[in-house]
Every structure is written in structure tokens, then in C-alpha cells.
Amino acid sequence: MSGNREQPLISVPQDVRFDDGVTLDSGRAFAPVTVRYETWGSLNRARSNGVLIVHAFSGDAHAAGYHPGGTLAGWWDNMIGPGKAFDTERYFVICSNVLGGCQGTTGPGSADPATGRPYGLSFPVVTVNDMVKVQKRLIDHLGIQRLLSVAGGSMGGMQALEWAVTYPDSIATAVVLASTSRLSAQGIAFDAVGRNAIMSDPLWNSGDYYDRQPPARGLAIARMLGHITYLSDESMGMKFGRKLQERSQFGFDFADQFAVESYLEHQGGKFVDRFDANSYIYLTKAMDYYDISERFGSLQAAFAQGAPRYLVISFTSDWLYPPYQSKEMVFAMMKAGKDVSYAELASPYGHDSFLLETERQAEIIAGFLESAYEEA
């Protein structure tokens, strides 16, 4: 399965503002809300070929292709495009930045209309369901009554599940990759340490740092910790081993740096350049709160009123959202009488497998979507 690389996808970021906003799970009416989104392909006459891609924690609306004159490909460019899993010659593909993010959609770094200054910690606590409420407003704005599919990995998988159980009549299928219906205690613990790294940075200033130096070191450390959870022991061993950076023998001093240390510092530094520390705090908290079994009484009860069809994919070396969590969802879907397909793919790349192991998962997703499209 391959796309036409001679004609790369070009997408132009678009914004839509909802002046009446949304009512959040906390009960607060929050307005206005601006949504940044991008689209690829064309909506058919029946408006039945819409596919919403929902991004993971550090993602954004730029899921595929290139911006005009840009050189940075979208984060899932190997999955979205002509002839790819999400075939833009057949489907109208949409991706938006989440509420609380920092890539164009309203978040803690956005200006509060009441003060003209960034919200900071006055921004309301948001949930995964709140993110999906805003996405539903966008889909309504685009004139789509029923999406062919909502698909995403990691935090994106949580959003796909939320679409399925909250708006079951508005989607035909949900594609959930490397995700969970609720974080484990270990997952919550990692998020807590990341937030503490940011909030312990002397420059954090209780979230009010937008007109001064940001808490870059705290955010970099949070990203370094998070990045470890996205990898696996095997993938780190394959890529780094115990190699030293720029030398072959120990110097027996604190200048010694292993290759894996240098890699993590590089990743932390890059992250600081594109992400807001407050968004890190808000989005990790939203993931911690997510638990559809608690909301509905059980997983089976949640999926009983959910979308008619599901595709769930997990990866053997994913220790952040291990396969047993996907299987728990699949069994609940089956008990609820849903049509569910499940694949556990062997991969050494840990949680990041859904971004890297695209060839095998693309074949599975393409077949699943094609079947749903023919039914639609």
C-alpha cells in the first residue's frame, strides 16, 4: 500500500470560532472556543465519507502532508494520503487540535477575553469528553451528520472511545490503537511526576509565565520521563545499548554521557520549542480522569450504547497501555453484542508502535474502513 509521493498532500490550517462555546463536564459554560483543524480529500455528495483523526497527547491538527512552503510532514503522514490506510482519494479526513492544547485551539496559553491576558491556571480543568464535545461542534459545522469513523492512538484512542459511547449515532466505526478505557495507577503516577517537574521549576510562577521565561527545564524533564514510557527496553537496547556519546571509554567523571541520555535531552529540548507547559498539565490531568467504566457503571454498559463497529489494535511491547487493557475493552464490546475486530501486533517499539509500525496496521485499518464504507 503506497501513496503518490510525487504529489505530496498540502493542507492549510483553518480556524473556526464558536462564540457560544461549550458546557464543560465541570458544569462551567466556557466561551468562546476557537478550533484549529486541517482536512484532506473531499466530502462526497452524501457526506458519508468523513473520517475524524484524533491526536495523541503531544499531537496537533497537522496529521498529514505539508503546509504551503513547509518542510515538516504531518505526524501520521505515513497513514494518511492517496492509497494509504486513510485513503484521501476515498475519504474526507479531518484532524483538529484538542481543547486545552497549544497548537491553535483554545487552551491555557490563549487570551482570556475578559482580561486580554493568557488564561494560565484560570483556564478550566477539561476532560476527554470536553475535547470530544468541541470536536462534535466542528463536525456539525462541517455539515457532517454521521462520520464513517473516528480513529486515534493513545489519548486519541480515548477520544475515539468517547465518541463511540457519547455520540453513537454520529459515527459508524471507531478505530482504537494502543489505548485504554482508563489509566492504570502506573500511568497516573508517570503523569503526576511530569506535572511536578513542571510545577517545581522556579520559572513556572504558578502558570503565569507567558510574558517572561517559561519553565523550560521542568517541561523538558517531564517530556524526558514521558518519552521513556513511549519506548521499550528492547527498542532502547537496539538503538542505544550502553554506548557513550562521542567517546568509546569511560572518563570516570560526571561529563560521561550515555547515548540514551543525550537522546532524551534532545527530545526534551525539542519539545520545549513547540509545547506549552500548562497544556502539559491540563492534558495529562484529563487523561488521568478518563474512565468510561466509572461513568457508565461498567465497560459492558458503556459499550452497550456505543458505536456498532470497532477495530482495536494493541502492541506486544507497549508497557504504558499494555495489550491486556485492549483485551479488556474487546471482551466488554463482545459481551455488549458489538461487532469488534482485534489485532495484537508483535513490535519492539513500545507505545510508539502505532506511529512506527504503520505497514501492518495500515493493511488492517484499510480493510476495516473499506468494509464500513461499502456498507455505508
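^ that was protein a. below is b, sequence first then the C-alpha cells
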Amino acid sequence: MTGIDSGTPGRPSMDLLRFATAGSVDDGKSTLIGRLLLDSKSIFADQLAAVEATSVSRGYDYTDLALLTDGLRSEREQGITIDVAYRYFATPNRKFIIADTPGHVQYTRNMVTGASTADLGLVLVDARQGLTEQSRRHAVILSLLRVPHLVLCVNKMDLVEYSQERFHEIHKEFTSFATKLSIPDLTIIPISALKGDNVVTRSKDMDWYEGPSLLHHLENIHVASDRDLVDTRFPVQYVVRPKSDEYHDYRGYAGRVAGGILKPGDDVLVLPSGMTSKISEIDLFDKALQEAFPPMSVTVRLEDDVDVSRGDMICRPQNAPTPSQDIDAMVCWMSTTPLRPRQKVAIKHTTRTARALIKDVLYRLDVNSLHRDLETKELTLNEIGRVQLRTTIPLLCDPYEKNRTTGSFILIDEATGVTLGAGMIN
């Protein structure tokens, strides 16, 4: 476990914010991230010099900040993002992990992967083009993934002469569309990533805008209450039995807290065995903790010598997940081979792996119109639909809207080990 995973329940993860960028091709996602890195002084001088040199060699009369994030050679050649690029930076107030996700429709699965762990989704639109099909698609996916905070950045305002009227047109159109989605918190900011307007500092050319700059919003948004601190969930990943004389009696259960707060002395229930015990100690490396909470990675020790192994779940006796072999979920399909009823796959849920049978495909969701296609009985690459599965062993799950860790799973090809799809339990 690293330092970014520690903190207090009031401000977990030492003020770490994970956010994902999304939007259509050429809306300026990579440029925006480059601007954030540059203006927050989070890049080295030699990195900036290399980007400036490349920009000059290409004949640009400006520094192409997108080169700071488009790391693949094919991305630089095409000027697009293909893979999910992760970047890290920090300010005195907060640490950030950015997932720069692709804009092309054929890379929707990459976008889902990058946004699945995000606290905030950042959707860019070109002020000249307005909302596009991809803008709506990514907003729908962020809503399905239950990303609790959404920021719409109306980019390239410099190319529409910083028009307040144009900003309000896009503002009205998107807020109307967002009423159909599950978006608890929406903020809309006019920016110019290339010029730096309203990214780190307020723009002098948009004095009509009274809101915060993007970085100020990212630094101050409250995400502590987004985590489930009520329902205790601790999936066991590994049983710790040191091979040394000093710790010959040591037996601990390592994993990442998925929900609730664990404290020494708490009564706990181990599923699926149903055995009960109390927490004796919670260890982090070589020190004991008085409490653990999401997303901390810790080792839990119990007072009684009960049978606990990888895939088991430690929870509270009066607040436990209901084991189930019949799973109803929204699935994003990531394989070129279609998902069809009667198909057999492997399923990985938290730390537990099982086999599963696809019982039925209830409908395919049109992520542009939100129309449910009840006639389609298969899902092809990048499509999202509602699927019913039957697993060989019970899964200890919660609804995805309640807990994004215990409410999600991935489907795997048993023969190749390739990830086929990602699911969100209804």
C-alpha cells in the first residue's frame, strides 16, 4: 500500500481525486490535461522542451500540449487518443490521478475501463460543434458507471470569441439531456485549453462567467461522502502466514476495504461459511491501526481461528450481502465475438472467481437515445445491455449503485484469459 491510500474517514485517500476525461475526437482532452500539468508546474523542464521541439518540427506556431499525454506512437501520428493514458500530478491541496480516455466510438471499452474507478467524469465539447453523439454517449456511460460528479467543459471558447450566448446554448442543451440520466452533481465550465482560460486561472476574456476555474473546482469538490462508510465489506485477497520464528503464530487476512469502517473489537461475520468472530488487530505494514476504511489496503486479524480463505467476505453479522447465483446486470461487451444466451464464461467478482452461464440478454441499450432494443438477443463489441447470468457458486454482491466494488464484475474467456466484458449489478 502506498501513501495515497491512507487518510481519515473525513478526507479519505489523503485528498486523492481520480477523474476521467471523455468526449469526441478533437475536443481537446489531451490538450486540457497538458495545460493542467503545465500550469500546475507538474512537468519537468526537459519534458516541456521536448514537446516544444516536436511542435516546432511539425510547423506549429504553438506548443502542442497534447503530446504530454499521447504516449503511443500511433496516437502521436494520428493526433488521437487510443489507449487510456494515466497521469499523476499534485497541488498543495490535493493529489490527482487522471485517466485520459479515447474519443473514438471503437474504443468505448477503453473509456469504460478508465472511468470505472473515477470519482469524477470530465466531458469536453467543442464550443463550435456543440454536443455530439460521442458527448452524449460518454455522459450516458459515466451515468451508468455511477460516477458521482460530472463536469462539462465547453472547450475552444477562444474560437467562438468567448461568446456568452454560445456557452448558454450548450449549457441549456446539456442540462436538458442530463435530466434523463442519473447525475447527482453537474458543473459546466467554459474554457480554452490551448490558451489556458479558466483551466488553472480565471479568464479575463470571460468576465461574464462567475464560477470557479477547473482546477479550483477539482481541488475543492467533496468526494468523502461518495464512499459507502456504512455497509462493511472486506473481500479477502490473501491469507498472510509469515514463515519466521518471530511471527510463527501470525495469521492475517489481507485485502482492500470495499465498504464501511473496520475497528478492533468489532463483531464480524465470514461469508460464505457463516462463522463469526471479532477483529483483534488491523495491521498496515508493521504498525497497528485503530480503524480502516475504503479504499485502504490492510491486514485484518481475528480473535478466533476460523477458516477464512481467498474469495471470502468479512462483514457485519447484522449487515451482510445476500449470496446469490442469479445475477441481473448491465454489461458492457468488450469482445469482437458477440455475447449470446447459453454462452459459458468465467466471472471475477471482487476476489472470488467462478464460472457463469449467460441465461438471457434482456435488451440492448442505445446509449445515444437511451432506447431499449428488446428485439436484439446479443451484444456486439462496445455495446451495453441488460443480461441475466447464473453462476456456479453464490456471489457476495451488492447493487452497483450502492457499492461500486461489490456491485461490479468482469467476464473472462476461460480458454484465453482475455477480459470479455464488464458488469454492473442491478
